[in-house]
Amino acid sequence: MSIICGGASSDLVAFEGSDLKKLLDDGILAHNLCLFGDNAYINSQYMATPYPNTSGGARDNYNYFHSQLRIRIECAFGMFVQRWGMLRTAIPCNVTVPKTISLVLALAKLHNFCIDEAEVIPANLLSQDEQNITGNRNGSVPLVADPLIAEIINVNTTTPRDLMGGGEHFDDAPRHYRRPLHNDALRSRLCNHVESTFKTRPRRREP
Asked: Which has fewest Cβ within 10 Å: 7, 64, 82, 161?
């Protein structure tokens, strides 16, 4: 986890300034591996994004399988903030930015440890935490059930929808900055693979 840019920064600018970006440019990824990002990112030799404005065909099928991967990330954030409910409330003003960064990094490491140890949060504690969070005088962000996610991965889960997508903009990355970064070769190759293996978007089940 890397915390460098402010919360209002675009995902692209945050990614461009990360240590991960430098490692990817140096070729850290093994052959035939890549990253999948939403349309807040730019296609590159190691990053593939969805096709915009599709309505059927190979590109739409590619977008469907692409979305399956991104949904897992949303679920991961849901699990993270459910375990540490303080992340769904405003950090007190007397906590400095460096301390806030250290806090989030520490919680992320503890979260991974709890997963490795198969630690389960008792339901009664979740209920008590939810009451404390929603009663916070500085406000809170609710966890919302998403029936689409439940249908796709066959798991009932909740995500902090109001915390998602804040960086999906290019306000601080104008077109002349983004244009030289764009490379569609990887996305085209993946789309061709979906088409050549006859993978298609499943039809939605009728209620």
From this structure: 7
One DSSP character per residue, the chain reads: ----S-TTS-HHHHHHTSHHHHHHHTT-SPTT--EE--TTS---SSEE-PPSS--SHHHHHHHHHHHHHHHHHHHHHHHHHHHSGGGGBPPPTTS-HHHHHHHHHHHHHHHHHHHHTT----HHHHHHHHHHHHT-TT-B---EE-HHHHHHHS---EE-GGGTTTT---TTS-HHHHGGG---HHHHHHHHHHHHTT--PPPPPP-
Q: Point out the residues of the chain with pLDDT beneath 50.
A: none
Cα–Cα–Cα angle for 89, 90, 91, rounded to 5 degrees? 115
Backbone phi, psi, residue 144, to 5°:
-115, 135
What pTM did the predictor assign?
0.72
Largest CA distance in the chain: 57
* pLDDT tens digit sequence for 112-128: 999 999 988 777 667 77
C-alpha–C-alpha distance, residues 152 and 170, integer Å:
29
| Residues pairing with 48 in the sheet | 36
